[in-house]
Amino acid sequence: MTAPNLFELEGAGVAVTYTVAGLDGRPQLTYRSEHLDLAFSGDEIAVERSPIGTLVTVELVAVPDHKTTTFTLLVPAVRPGDDDPDGSEVATQGITTERRTSIAPSQLRGQLERFTPAPLAGRARFVET
After folding, report:
1. DSSP element (H, E) containing 88
2. pTM for the whole thing?
3. How far is CA 107 from CA 89, 99, 100, 111, in A?
4. What is the DSSP letter of 5?
5. Is residue 9 a contact partner of residue 125, using CB atoms and an 8 Å limit?
6. 33 three-state secondary structure
7. What is the β-pairing status of strands 14-19 and 6-11?
């Protein structure tokens, strides 16, 4: 069976859909929360393989000389079974990172990043593109 290329996840007030390669061959991610409804594709998405899984990061908010907010989805490796046509159940984490920024970064003091984890659950499946 082919590895999943579509992850549909939700939890902690967030819904995320991540497609490894959409119809145009580029990654796609949608992020929905109470205050945001955003869609990202291609170079707007940073994909990095790591020892703990694939990290998929998008920038949610950028306020110059104040802060940036990113969301990182930890995509686990999934090996689906032949008897699971609807995909595999997945439980993972999303991490929202708020970074303090400044026109004079050397003037910033204290903790510069705040991390907020969000447990996510849903399904991972393979879809033809």
Report:
1. strand 88-100
2. 0.91
3. 46, 14, 11, 12
4. -
5. no
6. coil
7. antiparallel
